[in-house]
């Protein structure tokens, strides 16, 4: 706001090139000259390499989508492996039951040593 007031108070003959350009944008309602989504403090911090906030958020969201897709694929693989394991366990139980069926009832007659 202070810059806009500065432009309005300044003599038009004293405008620099950038000031004239920005005044023209203001008069057209164009806010492209405003640093929207940016901060000089954040840009001075080299953590994000001068990347503006919106770009950083978009980049991080893309990374999160890739991670979620990978997790989903891993979950599907795990579910398939668990289904396969469950089938193998069921088949093993059936084989054990088949082997033990002829001996049903005999276990009741046998005495097992107590510990």
Explain how this protein is built:
With 115 residues, the chain is mainly α. The protein is 67% helix and 0% strand. The protein has helices at residues 2-9, 17-28, 40-44, 53-100, 106-109. The termini are far apart. The mean pLDDT is 82.
Estimated helix fraction: 55-70%
Query: Which secondary-structure class do the elements indicate?
Result: mainly alpha
Provide mean pLDDT, rounded: 82
**Largest sheet: number of strands, sense, barrel closure:** none
Put simply, the count of helices is 5
Percentage beta strand: under 5%
Q: Could you tell me how far the N terminus lies from the C terminus, measured between alpha carbons in angstroms?
A: 89 Å
Shape: rod-shaped
The sequence of SSEs as H and E is: HHHHH
* Low-confidence spans: none
User: What is the radius of gyration?
Assistant: 37 Å
Count of distinct strands: 0
Please state the oligomeric state of the protein chains shown: single chain
Give me some keywords for this one:
mainly alpha, 115 residues, 5 helices
């Amino acid at each position: 706001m202070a810059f806009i007031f500065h432009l309005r108070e300044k003599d038009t003959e004293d405008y620099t090139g950038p000031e004239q350009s920005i005044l023209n944008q203001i008069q057209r309602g164009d806010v492209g000259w405003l640093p929207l989504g940016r901060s000089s403090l954040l840009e001075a911090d080299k953590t994000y390499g001068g990347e503006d906030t919106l770009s950083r958020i978009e980049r991080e969201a893309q990374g999160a989508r890739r991670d979620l897709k990978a997790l989903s694929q891993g979950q599907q693989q795990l579910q398939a492996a668990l289904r396969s394991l469950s089938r193998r366990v069921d088949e093993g139980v059936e084989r054990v039951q088949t082997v033990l069926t002829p001996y049903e009832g005999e276990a009741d007659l046998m005495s097992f040593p107590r510990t």
